[in-house]
Amino acid sequence: MKRAYLAGEWVETGQSMAVINPFDGQVVETVALCTPAEIDQALHKAVASQEAIRRLAPYQRAEALAAIRDGIAAKRELFARTLSLENGKTLAESQVEIARSIATFDIAVGEATRIQGEAYDLGINAMAVGRQALVRRFPVGVVSAIAPFNFPMNLAIHKIAPALAAGCPVVLKPASKTPLTALLLAELVQESGWPAGAFSVLPCDRAAGQRLVTDERIKLLSFTGSPEVGWKMKRDAGKKKVVLELGGNAGLIVDKDVRDWDWLISRAVMGAFYQCGQVCISVQRIFLHQEIMGEFRARFKKATEALRTGDPLDPATTLGPIIDSSNRQRLQEWVQEALEQGAELVSGNQVAPIGQGNSMTATILEEVNPACRIAADEAFGPVVTLTAVESMAEAFQLANESRFGLQCGLFTNDFDTVMQAFDTLEVGGLIHNDVPSFRVDSMPYGGLKDSGLGREGVKYAMQDMLEDRVLVYRRS
């Protein structure tokens, strides 16, 4: 059984939790399940560690981050295999996530030495003449990080790496279904020389994890997950800062002036079905100019049907399983609801026989009632809808008719259309000539409306983890 990592110590708790392989239902590993008592200890030690972190020079924080980065790189195959076993993504997808995790730490290495303030003359009027302002940025304090199952490594690191770069202690709650890569990461943090009390990885259930939302010793809560859970956490969080990276039903808009069909189709397939669609910025709604609807449908259907479900560790598998049977059943219900309300099935909607994993074929629907859950809510699975439009203005309007606003993709070769979209679309990110699923780990990432609050991307996450203090100096 893998123990929890509590402020520099590996502990058993007397309780345990099984981690289940989504593909075959087998137990991958058993981990210690933490209680509020362990969380309380971790928070106590995190607060006590703040002085030790404060004494670390920027280069020392950078050295610790670099050691963790290099440790992941040295064990990338172990991390990737563990990730596939606990999460169900294909081995190729897991390898991409580990590569991104290394890159995220690499970005943080640089940012740890670029925490800058400013100095300026306050003499904007007679009463302030002779006074100087010195503004410095200080760590906000203990960070509570609650990570999701779909990117259990890199999305946890998007909370951990900025916090360490800023000099904040971190208590991480990994997703209950996928704690193993986070515990492997804890081994590297321990080896890096990071102050022992300043980092914990505590697998726990939602009830115990509520302490990581409400406890007043926490100064910032960073959560990635569902909107329903995230907004409730914000209500419960009290006076602490809150950063929420929540869901979406991302749109992909395609103008009639398509030039590179191979690029468009390959990216649309990737965007819709990468990691079995279990991505917040997965392509869920595709809006196509009516002049290209027929050709797109035919090409997209052919490419989609070439995807192969199966064991994520099999190199031939290109579409892994859904995380569990309850989510597979939910998707089936949502697709059936759409079909009953007049939607047409273009392709897919087949599931593996009971007992043979949680696989579901890539599914394409059209003529979908926009009020159906498969269009209006976050599918978080391998289902995409096609809608024909008469103009880009209509596409922008339909894309905005959503309670979400995370990212949107736009294929067009007209610059005016790009700028109109940038002005019009209510999203945190617009991706030109690519899918909304595109993300580089240094860019600001986050959404509007029900998609969240605040931004990730190392430099941007650090802005919430630091607070400005001003010294007003009066010359005698």
The top level CATH class name of the largest domain = Alpha Beta
Q: How would you classify the helix and strand content by structural class?
A: alpha/beta
CATH homologous group name of the largest domain:
Aldehyde Dehydrogenase, Chain A, domain 1
Identify the CATH architecture of the largest domain: 3-Layer(aba) Sandwich
Low-pLDDT segments: none
Query: What fraction of residues sit in β-strands?
Result: 15-25%
The CATH topology of the largest domain is what? Aldehyde Dehydrogenase, Chain A, domain 1
How large is the count of helical segments? 17
Q: Which outline best applies?
A: globular
Order the strands across the largest sheet as they lie in space.
Answer: 14-15-16-13-12-18-19
Percent in helix: 25-40%
Q: What is the end-to-end distance?
A: 66 Å
Gyration radius (Cα, Å) is 23 Å
For the biggest sheet, the summary is: 7 strands, mixed
Mean pLDDT over all positions: 97
Q: What's the number of structural domains?
A: 2
Tally of extended strands? 22
